[in-house]
Amino acid sequence: MNNQERQLKCYTIGHSNYPIGAFTYFLSVFRIDCIIDVRSSPYSRNNPQYNRENLKTSLGKEGVEYRYYGDRLGGRYYAPDLLYPDGTVNYGKISQTSAFQEAIQGVIGLIEKGRVIALMCSEREPERCHRFALVSRNLQQNNVNVIHIIPGVKTQTNVELEGGLKNKYLDKNQSTIDNTASDDVETLYEIINKNIGFKVKTTYDVSNFKSKGGMSRIQAPQGLRDINTSIREEYSNRESSRGNLPDETFYISEGKKSTKQKTLLN
Asked: 0.85 cut: is pTM over it?
C-alpha cells in the first residue's frame, strides 16, 4: 500500500429536504466537483429539486458533474440469492457481485484522476443509509478515506462513525446476530444492514423465484401503475421519510416463464 492509495478521499452526503441552493453551497464548501448518485430510484416526489434531470441541471450551473450509479451501487435488490431469509437485502452478497465491484473501481478511478467526489443518497444521516453500510465500507476496504458530510456542514470520517456506532450497538445486539462475524466491525455492519436494509415484501414466497440470467437486479417497466393497494400503504410512511413514494411495479420471472404477480419497486 503506497502513500497515494492512503490519501484517496471520497465524501458522502444526503440531500434530505434541503433547498437546492443550500445543497450546492455544501458542495462548494468542500470543493466537490462530481456527485455520484447512488439512489436506486433517482427521483423524489416530496423534493423534486432532486429528481435526476432537475438535479443534473442545477449541478451543471455550479460546475458540478452529475453521474448516476444507482443501478450498480443502489441499495434495492430483489433476487432471492441476494437477500436474507426475511427478505432484507444482504449487503455482503451485493458487494460480491461483479457489477457492484466494477462500479466501486469506477469511483476509485475518478478519484485517482483528481476528481473531488461525493456519493449522494437521500438520507440525511449516513448511519441510516446504504451509502455508509454498503458503499462506503467497500471504498474503505479499497484504501479510500471516506468522509461523511453531516448536518451543520460538519464532517465525520467513516472510521469515526464506525467507532461511535460500535459503542451504540454492539453490547445490546450481540445476541441477535449470527455467530459468523469474524470481528466487531463485521458484527456492526451486519447489525446496521439488518436494521436499515431495504426489505422485499411480496404477495408470494420470494424463495420460489430465481433471478433470470444471473441478474442481480430486476428493472421495472416504466409507467406501470397497477399497484397492490395494501402494499403501497405499507410502504408509504417509510418511503416518504426518505423522500420517495412508491409508484411503480415490476415483474419477476422464473426461468423463461413470467408471472403476472406484481410487487413494489420503490
From this structure: no
Q: Which CATH number fits domain 3-196: 3.90.190, 3.30.70, 3.30.1050, 3.90.550?
A: 3.90.190
DSSP letter at 226? -
Question: CA 32 from chain center: how many Å?
Answer: 20
CA dist., res. 187 & res. 176, Å (int): 10
Residues 193 and 90: beta-carbon distance below 8 Å? yes
Residue 139 · residue 73 · CB < 8 Å: no
Distance CA 149, CA 153 (A): 6
Strand pairing category for 34-37 and 65-68: parallel
Helix ranges (DSSP H) in the chain: 3-7, 20-29, 52-61, 70-73, 91-94, 98-112, 130, 137-141, 158-173, 184-196, 229-240
pLDDT per residue as tens digits for the range 105-126: 999 999 999 999 999 999 999 9
Q: Which of 96, 93, 95, 135 shows the shortest CA–CA distance to 117?
A: 135
Record the cell numbers describing residue 16, joined without a space. 434530505
Q: Are 266 and 240 in contact (CB under 8 A)?
A: no
* DSSP helix/strand/coil, 194: helix
Kindly indicate the confidence band of residue 172, based on its pLDDT and cuts at 50, 70 and 90.
Answer: low
Output the furthest CA–CA distance in the chain (Å, rounded). 55
The domain locations on the chain are 3-196, 206-264
